[in-house]
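Can you give me the bound-state structure? Components:
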Amino acid sequence: MQGLKENKNFCIIMAGGIGSRFWPMSRTRRPKQFLDVLGTGETLLQSTFERAKMICPIENIYVVTSKLYGELVEHDLPECRKENILCEPVRRNTAPCIAYAMAKIEKRCEDALVLVMPSDHLIVDKENFVNRIFQGFRLAQREQVLICLGIKAAYPNTGYGYIQYNMDVCSQDDCGIKKVKLFTEKPAYEMACSFVESGDFLWNAGIFIWSLQAIKAAFAKFLPEITEVILKGRDLLDTDQEEAFVEDAYSICPSISIDYGIMEKADNVYVIPSDFGWSDIGTWGALYNVMNKDENGNSVVGKNVMLYDCTNCLINVPKDRLLVAQGLDDYIIVESEGVVMMCKKGEEQRIKQFTTDVEIEKGNEYI
Amino acid sequence: MQGLKENKNFCIIMAGGIGSRFWPMSRTRRPKQFLDVLGTGETLLQSTFERAKMICPIENIYVVTSKLYGELVEHDLPECRKENILCEPVRRNTAPCIAYAMAKIEKRCEDALVLVMPSDHLIVDKENFVNRIFQGFRLAQREQVLICLGIKAAYPNTGYGYIQYNMDVCSQDDCGIKKVKLFTEKPAYEMACSFVESGDFLWNAGIFIWSLQAIKAAFAKFLPEITEVILKGRDLLDTDQEEAFVEDAYSICPSISIDYGIMEKADNVYVIPSDFGWSDIGTWGALYNVMNKDENGNSVVGKNVMLYDCTNCLINVPKDRLLVAQGLDDYIIVESEGVVMMCKKGEEQRIKQFTTDVEIEKGNEYI
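Here's the bound-state model for the whole set.
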């Protein structure tokens, strides 16, 4: 891997999500990425930043977040340069977020190689992850391509994007990298089933690798309305007028994902099938699937939890809370900041309803 | 009822229990009687004191408690005379407790009529209760008898005492009062079933009525070892040596219940069958039985509780706690001072095991 952790390697960490499905732990004022949901002692953002440090110098790591969360990012990442924390005035999905960060990076390094990743995913095997990223960087340096990371589709999750691939890229170093045939966002259940059965579909992990020039060209081609807006303010970036410019730019930028805006349309998209142990930890159930479990299938975060006749439960309570539970099977039990939630694991899609009801009945204190 | 709320009517409220089956709400440092377990805004002790005020003047109400709880009693009952709060140095069951309070009362009124009642029971129909007590006082004034209140045995509870009665007392005013044939403490299940079936058994509510002279004679006959100990210190009561005397007296007093020590042995015992709506609220399940329930059979204490698909649950959480629960049937869910406990209602006898385990693993902080 010599020469790979070079100064033209950059990372963009996307940390603007609101993680509503992780209620009550995830709150509007402190979403999932700022929480230690795995009980490791690190927030998900901190773990992500540590991974980024294996890819590039600290000064090349950018974090894009909502201006609501700027202070939370600073708090979680004291090592991160303050000028690398980019605050979005409003949520506009991933394409504007990436365009903004790319414009910042371009002013520092026109031939940058960039890794884009969400701040709230779990990566189990970090070495494997780093190897995949560097493999992607090598291809991105050589050719004007857009690369995403794909995870073998294990079950028909209808909340994910699916990537169908076809032929291998031929060079030896690129061994395993596939040309993408089709991107499909959130398929219907029957379609998701057929994807999983067919075997040549991967989940889109939302992790991207490209050269600055490649993504710039793609934006110009597929999202010129965003390119124009951001381009106009190029000279204002890194000045005291940046904030006002970004405020204006975001007010007129369309809200669109990078997947829908570019990846689904471009014909130079590649995927690296990956097996480093991944989860988007998108729901409590997804978290349960990746957590360690005791002999009864219970996954527990909390120092004082005593279970009797409990099986297959996910429990997450504060350190100082004594929880004694008896006779529960397949429940999610979470306590966080004034709220206790108990819900059958199979019913967790109703958490959205709970939060809506809570907001109506109790106001936004608990949301 | 003219002339009944006279100065020779006295009440003794027994408030020394530790309520271990009500964990985690009931704690060693604040047992059940000092809690608002019914969510009425009053602690059980406060409700009991209010009932006592319907029977006799405030200055004739005595509260016997552990010295650990003297301050809690003072806090809950600002109206209660401080010299009427009797603090026991150690727990010695009900007989010494009653003997001590009787000795205090005797110094004020040798022909007192006394109601003895636990501090932690529920009485639904207070007027009916008061009528029963005054009926008892009239009999106790006329004859040297020991009277207890009996509740129609509704199901074979093996934790209660049972009273078998036979003939009616004949005078018109005593209508309904029965002579007691047999006292049986905590029968085996099969025996409890036969008691309930036979129809002439009542539960012993632990509420007693007698004249001071009648109970004094009974103590002299059946518990002379307690009479002697207390009698010795008669002159020290209401002096600054009372505390030291009581300390000594309790150290040598046997630990024995009034039921076992006197009521089971005496032949002048009567019972007033009562139907004022009673529960000893001895367990969470017993509390559930007497609580109001919503249309799904859930009994809820707490301002911010939202239930989805929950049935037959007993829920008791602090006012400021938001609890969202989904898909639970027949559970007890209680939060109190750092502890959340969830337990199937049918398994609540295991709470004792939980507290033992908690004490071993976590120390007595949570007990």
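A couple of observations. The longest strand of chain B covers residues 201-211. The mean pLDDT of chain B is 92.
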